[in-house]
Each structure stands twice: as C-alpha cells, then as structure tokens.
Amino acid sequence: MSHYFDRDIALKMLEAQLIAAGAPVRPQTLERLYAFYQLLEEGNKHANLTSISGWESVRDELIVRSFPLAHLLNSAQPGARLIDIGTGAGVPGLVIKIVYPHLEVALIDATRKKIDFLTAAIDALDLKEVTAIHARAEDLAHHQPYRESYDFAVARALGSLSEIAELLLPFVAVGGTAAALKTAGVDGEAAQAAFAASQMGGEPAVLFLVERQGMDTPGDGPADTLVTWRKATPTPERYPRRAGVPHKTPLAAPASHSTTAKVSGE
Ligand code: SAH
C-alpha cells in the first residue's frame, strides 16, 4: 500500500471526526492537521514534546480531543483573540488555530523546547496571527498586552480546575470565556473550583459533556467535559498569585463559606 493511499484514508477519517464534532472543514484544514502530526513526530525525535505518537493516537488524543472547543468557537468573530495556557506541543491552541484560522492565537508554555518547536511549526504550516511565547502564566498575566485582553483562554491537562481558573481568567476580558478540556467526572472538582473562579471575576461554571468519537473504539470511548466560565467582572490585581502558588495552594473557600456541617461543642 503506498504512503499516499494511507494518508488519503487518514484525512477522510479525520474529516468525519471534524464534522461529527460540529467543527468546520475548510480548504487546507485536513492537510495542515496532518502536517502538524508529521512535524510532531519529527520534533519528538529531538525533544520530548509529548508521549503520544503514531497517527491514530495523535489524531484521537491530541487533535480530536481539542474539537469540543467548537462549542465555543463556531460563533467567534474573525479576529477574536484566544490564549492557550500550558499548550505543550500545541494542544489545544495550535490545533484550534488550524481549524479556526481567523482567530488570533497566543500559545504559552513554561518549557523552552516546546515553544521552540511551536515557533518552527507555525512557520512550517505558514500560519499567520499566531505566536508562541515562553513564559509562566502567573507572570505573563500581570503584563499588558496580555492581562484581561482575550476573548477566550483555554487549557488542557494544566492542573486542577481551581488552578486553571486562577491561571486562565486573569487573561480574559470581561464578557469573554475561560475553558478547560477535562476528562469526565469533574463535578466535584468544578464545585471545589467555584470559589477560585468567583475570586477571578468568573460566573459559575457551565459543563458540556462530550462523547468521544475515537474511530478505534466506536461509540463508547469515555466522555470528556468542557468546563467554561464566563468572565463577569475584572480580576483583582493580586491574582494570579506568584509562580507555583496556584498549583501548591489552590484557592479554597474560607471555612466560614464551607458547606460542611459544623458540630457544635457539647
Ligand atoms: N496542553 C498540552 C500539554 C499539557 S502538559 C496537552 O494537553 O497535551 C502541561 C504543560 O503546561 C507543560 O508543557 C508545562 O510546561 C506547562 N505549564 C505548566 N504550568 C505552567 C504555567 N504556570 N505557565 C505556563 N505553562 C505551564
């Protein structure tokens, strides 16, 4: 079987997954997603970018699992601005830029080699209005033009929802949305993050359950959850806290806010 034939089939299946997710398929979308996969395989030989390799795994774990963001992005205006915090090898931010080329995208990661890979990939894919920045979110969020200036801040596999709320919402303009891609079963974690989100000026979380549509496990892959917070009011200047603190000491409601029943002393 020729290489060309394999690739042709691969692109057809990917197209079906994009359509199933409700995401648009434009000229170049499929070619670019496949080229991203090839760049990732090549880049992974030189630097440890992701543990995921092989077309089907990259497709299902990195590319397709970014598609639930279509819920948010299908109605985004041209030129809307999106920032991906802890993007790693470009997930979901670079995948999103390929599917929604009219968005202006910033990819943030604290690891230099990942940013170097992304900078080269952006160039190779001939994408405009997308930039990769080596920084920690806790630092960058205190600087213009980043603070409170994005329509969307997104993340996957960055940490707990409390940590994610503290790292994402300071980047979001009032009226914009922060969104985290998580696996299923995050209701408890979302409840724990309610305090952090409200401190950042976020409204209560809205959760979308997403069936996974892996071609290898038709129909019954575990569901993912898209957790979103709309930003209602500006984030106080003291947030996010210093680098490392949101991870080490996630924000939690003070004891007086706790819903745990108190036993009166007898
Ligand atoms: N989003 C990618 C990568 C997840 S791994 C994916 O889903 O595959 C988490 C990434 O976040 C790592 O690359 C790490 O360097 C980065 N990271 C962790 N904390 C960060 C912070 N505070 N600021 C910026 N990047 C961070």
Give a summary of the structure in a few sentences.
By secondary structure, the chain is of the alpha/beta class. The protein is built from eleven helices and seven strands. The termini are far apart.
Describe it for me?
- The protein is α/β, with parallel strands linked by helices and 266 residues long.
- The protein has one domain: Rossmann fold (3-Layer(aba) Sandwich).
- Helices cover 36% and strands 20% of the residues.
- The chain has 11 helices and 7 strands.
- Strands 3-2-1-4-5-7-6 form a 7-stranded mixed β-sheet, sandwiched between helices.
- Helix 8 (161-168) links the parallel strand 4 and strand 5.
- The chain is globular, with a radius of gyration of 19 Å.
- The termini are far apart.
- Bound molecules: S-adenosyl-L-homocysteine.
- S-adenosyl-L-homocysteine (SAH) binds at residues 85-88, 91, 108-111, 114, 136-138, 156-158, 167.
Secondary structure layout:
Elements lengths: L2 H18 L8 H18 L8 H9 L6 H4 L7 E5 L7 H7 L4 E6 L2 H13 L5 E5 L2 H4 L9 E7 L4 H8 L3 E12 L3 H6 L1 H6 L6 E7 L8 E10 L14 H4 L18
Parallel strand pairs: 1-2, 1-4, 2-3, 4-5
Antiparallel strand pairs: 5-7, 6-7
This protein binds S-adenosyl-L-homocysteine.
